[in-house]
Amino acid sequence: METISFAGEGIATELLPLEELADCAASVLAGDGARILSYGTGAGYTPLRELVAEWFEVHPYHVVLTNGWLHGFGLFVGERVSGRSVVAEYPTYDRALHTLFAAGANLLYADSTELGINVEALAQKIQVTRRPALAYLIPSFQNPTGRTLALEDRVALVGLLCRGETLLLEDDSYAALRFEGEAPPTLFVLSERRSVYSTSFSYSIAPGLRVGVFILPGGLAGELAAQATSNYISPSLVSQATVYEFIQRGALAPHLERLRAGLKLRRDTLVAALERQLPQASWMSPEGGVFVMLTLPLGTDCEALLAQARGVEAHAGRALGGWPNMVRLNFGALSPEEIELGVQRLGAALGEGALAG
Q: What is the pTM of this model?
């Protein structure tokens, strides 16, 4: 039986610009191979840093490119959060959560619903604990819920967190994947560029390129670049140069148009299949991104459900810091036909019953 995996972090292969990227890589190796096949600055490929800086209206010094977002995040939090409080959403991206725990952070969860983070409750938590060293938030198409924070929540969070010793780190890795609705301003813009902005080309172009982007205020960019240099000397300049060539050719905009259309088709397929096969569940239909968080009836153990749903993989809520009756589905990594079959298998397993946690 073929396994249908909703557990992946990536994008379906047919949505990747394979031929264009191959040509971009060949072009940069032919034209700039001597430089990009050698060691370079730990801050990343200078032309791409300059381009990103132009997009976000900052000096290139403040832009650091890393070997994927997660590696950069791990370098950044490092000893910064050891023994200190860190605000994180509940639930949140599991790999970031593991990184924070491994760094010795004390998690201070921001409780949230479909309507957004309960800022008032978070303020009360902060009042009775040591001022957090860091706040890690995914405001757009959040992993795993798919939720996008409303403007009023963003303004309130910036007002609450961007003061004193708390540093706000925004993970905007999925923002380019909006296929409907209007995008609210980033926390970075609302904070007047006093926060840390981070994103990745993994979802907007291709995950295997491993190009993460961090925009940092003050001397934090120099600190992260020095940590990168110490950790891996220099990032993959070939990948970063390939991304730069892809953008400079004007290939990014048409690619994103195709990618968003493909993701919308998959989102619509998933939602329609859930309505047919799992009417007892609840979920929020996202306006972009790749994730839907499925909430099943209370008492359902999603780990048991996935074990019983032969040929289906997904992330159960516990792994994401969530409840046992939650399961995250990545619709971006599958074909519409695979989505239909996977949901059918989940529905059949739930119908077999005896899944109480």
A: 0.95
